[in-house]
Amino acid sequence: MKRLLLLLLPCFALTAFLPQKNITGEQILKKMYSRYSGNWYKNFTFTQTTENYRNDSPVKTATWYEAIVFPDYFRISFGDIKDGNAMLQIKDSVFNFRKGKMFRKSLKGQDHTFLLGGMYFIPFDSVKVRMEKEGYDISKAYESEWKGKKVYVLGANSAVEKTNQLWIEKDRLILVRFLKYEGANKEEAIFGDHKKFGKARSETSCSFFVNDKLIQTEKYNDCRVNTNVDMRLFDPYNFYQQ
Known about the structure:
Elements: H1 2-16, H2 25-36, E1 43-54, E2 57-69, E3 73-78, E4 86-90, E5 93-98, E6 101-107, H3 112-115, H4 124-133, E7 141-146, E8 149-154, E9 165-169, E10 175-182, E11 185-192, E12 195-197, E13 200-202, E14 205-210, E15 213-225
Antiparallel strand pairs: 1-2, 1-15, 2-3, 3-4, 4-5, 5-6, 7-8, 8-9, 9-10, 10-11, 11-14, 12-13, 14-15
């Protein structure tokens, strides 16, 4: 028996050091897409308490009213809708309004709407293209832990890489964190307090950091899904204030 164990030990040692097959970012996306495509809510409305910070101290609190129709429409009304202060994002275009008048139009809005639900309403091949466009390397991934939960990290192969990353909770396959790097700047978002809506889930709290300094927190209230959202809310050329 002793001789047998001695013969087997080199085999076990060799196996322990053989390279393990790692999951790729594309495989993670496929897992997410397979679970939620066709099961995600079509629209989402909520009231948001927004708190802005400077030097780690709160400086302003406001109420925002938000409406999303996946995959392409997102509106924030800053304060009462009748005040006419809002931001509309339609696909890649962003329209800003003050007192009901458009004062700025720009391209390339935030990718939050896509990452937090929009990706489940387009073909999977288009999801991969969009991820690459947003700067996530879907060939890379590794496994880690976040707040006591196992996660996939899409966009990097190790914790030391300073690359754009999505942190996906392994069990529920939901986005809990992202990191984005642009030049010398690092942007981080943390998504928490997820609630279940049908077969899908939404974050109801968010924290945003720039270069590791807290700049904004968000709390969602009165969350509703699959309601009759008035699409006039998203018309930038006939701005709706009622």
